[in-house]
Specification:
The chain has 174 residues and is of the alpha+beta class. The chain has six helices and eight strands; from the N terminus they run E-H-E-E-H-E-E-H-E-E-H-H-E-H. It has a two-stranded antiparallel sheet with strand order 1-8. The chain has a two-stranded antiparallel sheet with strand order 2-3.
């Protein structure tokens, strides 16, 4: 069964553990100008005294219709049939940036050799039954590794719950 990484924005505190785990897992060194495949964005909304801060941990979504895969002219980008992870074969990458132009989320990045690189869903971990590194270290469980349809089910149940709380009970007058 294919799984993907989900973020519960209500639980993310922006601690950066996922970013560090990603860098460790993928041997990424910021001092060499390399950036983590996972990023955290801070979103502020409202004004004092009603201001809120939310954090969004982002990475490759390993899209079902993967524009980067479709946009790659050399076949360097493929989908792992077992896990559904979108992976890059740097031997086939010509550094044309078609994937970067195609991706609406700005995920593909290019290394010093001009080859595309991105999150591979920690394929080496997932293949042996482990969670991706970012999910494994999340202290608030904001990141989870769930089946693809889990998000749809969660949205449907939240909608149903909200609907049930807004419909007047029998015998009540508004």
């Amino acid at each position: 069964m294919r799984k993907t990484i989900y973020l519960n924005i209500e639980l993310c505190v922006g601690c950066g553990a996922c970013v560090v785990a990603c860098m460790d897992q993928n041997d990424i060194y910021p001092e060499k100008g390399q950036a983590s495949f996972r990023r955290i964005y801070k979103m502020e909304e409202g004004e004092f005294p009603e201001a809120n801060i939310k954090y969004i941990s982002t990475g490759c979504l390993h899209c079902e219709d993967s524009p980067c895969l479709i946009g790659c002219p050399t076949g360097a980008i493929t989908r792992d049939e077992t896990t559904g992870a979108i992976i890059v074969n740097q031997e086939l990458c010509i550094g044309c940036h078609s994937c970067a132009i195609s991706c609406p989320f700005g995920v593909p990045r290019f290394n010093v050799n001009g080859k595309m690189e991105k999150c591979n869903l920690c394929l080496e971990r997932v293949e042996v039954g482990l969670e991706p590194a970012c999910v494994r270290v999340c202290p608030t469980f904001a990141l989870t590794f769930e089946p693809l349809n889990k998000l749809q089910e969660t949205k449907e149940s939240k909608f149903a719950l909200n609907l049930m709380t807004t419909i007047p009970k029998v015998g009540t007058v508004r």
